């Protein structure tokens, strides 16, 4: 992890961070893509976690949210406008869902639906 400020870190990604995931004290902010699972879990090893908070529900932000919440027994928070997408009642990627690139992103990046415990406004 790279320290950015007291109590704030950005998780590593090689060769350079393109998908930013932060730890602010004990809150994981965003959860990367589904294929970031190993990296996220390795970076969080030995650290306390009280919540996962998503800045928004896109495949590159919510991919590992369910796995982290279940493994750590912590709640998930996201904005009120994104609750239906995170809980699977509407698509995460609504624009041009049938486009080949968006289908690929859904297949490789998007995580499964998961219940939102805390709604942010």
Describe the secondary structure blueprint for this structure.
Elements: E1 2-5, E2 8-10, E3 22-24, E4 27-29, H1 37-44, E5 51-53, H2 59-62, H3 65-72, E6 76-79, H4 83-86, H5 100-108, E7 118-120
Parallel strand pairs: 4-5, 5-6, 6-7
Antiparallel strand pairs: 1-2, 2-3, 3-4
What does this protein look like?
With 121 residues, the chain is an alpha/beta fold. It has one domain: 4-Layer Sandwich (Metallo-beta-lactamase, Chain A). It contains five helices and seven strands; from the N terminus they run ββββαβααβααβ. The chain has a seven-stranded mixed sheet with strand order 1-2-3-4-5-6-7, covered by helices on one side. The longest helix is centred in the C-terminal third of the chain and has 9 residues. The protein is globular.
What's a quick, concise take on this entry?
The chain contains 5 helices and 7 strands; from the N terminus they run E-E-E-E-H-E-H-H-E-H-H-E. It is α/β, with parallel strands linked by helices.
> What is the domain tally?
1
CATH topology: Metallo-beta-lactamase, Chain A
Structural category is: alpha/beta
Instruction: Please provide the ordered H/E string of secondary-structure elements.
Output: EEEEHEHHEHHE
> Count the strands?
7
Question: Using only CA atoms, what is the Rg?
Answer: 14 Å
What proportion strand?
15-25%
Q: What strand line-up does the widest sheet have? A: 1-2-3-4-5-6-7
**Bulk shape:** globular
- CATH-defined superfamily: Ribonuclease Z/Hydroxyacylglutathione hydrolase-like
CATH architecture: 4-Layer Sandwich
